[in-house]
Amino acid sequence: MTRFVLLFSLAVLLTLAPAALAWGDLGHRMVGDLAARQLTPAARAEVARLLAGEPEPTLGGVANWADDLRNTDPERFKATSRWHYINAKGGGCAFDVARDCPDGNCVVAAIEAQRKILADRSQPQAARRDALKFIVHLVGDVHQPMHAGNRTDAGGNKFQVSLRTDIPPEAYARNNYVDGVMGTNLHSVWDYYILASRGLSAKRYAKLLAAQPAPATGGNTPLDWAETSCQLIDQRQLYPAEHKMDRGYLDAMRPLAEQRVREAGLHLAQLLNQTLDPGAK
After folding, report:
1. Domains, the chain
2. How much is the pTM?
3. pLDDT per residue over 67-112, tens digit each?
4. Span of the secretion signal (predicted)?
5. Using CB atoms within 10 A of its CB, is residue 160 exposed (0-12), middle (13-18) or buried (19+)?
């Protein structure tokens, strides 16, 4: 068996491992941290009240809760797993919610549904708290381009690559790291490796991104955010021509990934301000 065949075979095995999680812990934490910096006082107070008692009662601290359900509450994770993405079944990037979001099971509809629960102060606090935690995570998801596309490769999960990197892989994928080459897929590259290759902690990275000029707001709805993610896939040539890649791809794509994290933080803050602060415009 040649070296490339071995690596490719290992990469295929990744499809049997836990599915890649959007932005990974680092990216989701940064989205939450960036949003927290942009909350109005009233929204900030309501967030603090709802998250009181959480192990880490901050937006960044709960940003990965929806993915952590995989281990803490598998049945709930299974029931909500389709909330993390949307795929345009008709091609193009003009998502049709009726067609692409059956029974409300896609990221666009899930954000809207959870926002309504969060806004309803007659709901039990536990329901509003969980709605907030879902929103923090799902707004991050919809800004990750691989979570809103039109291809048939499960958001790049079936686009196998061999990535030469010195970045330690996530725990579940360690067996696929051989002689400095990671057998993985394009989705995982976007979830983990692009941001991780900066070599910064979430706190330091978020501070760095927060110091940059505010991004343009673009569309104001989850559907707008999904369509932008989808359009970026072809506009910025996110799919490489070859299945072998190295740090050059990570470096080339990092500015776009950072831009989407910053936009997610801004849009999350705007959504929470409008939902939790009666005086917000």
Report:
1. 3-276 (1.10.575.10)
2. 0.91
3. 999 999 999 999 999 999 999 998 899 999 999 999 999 999 999 9
4. 1-22
5. buried
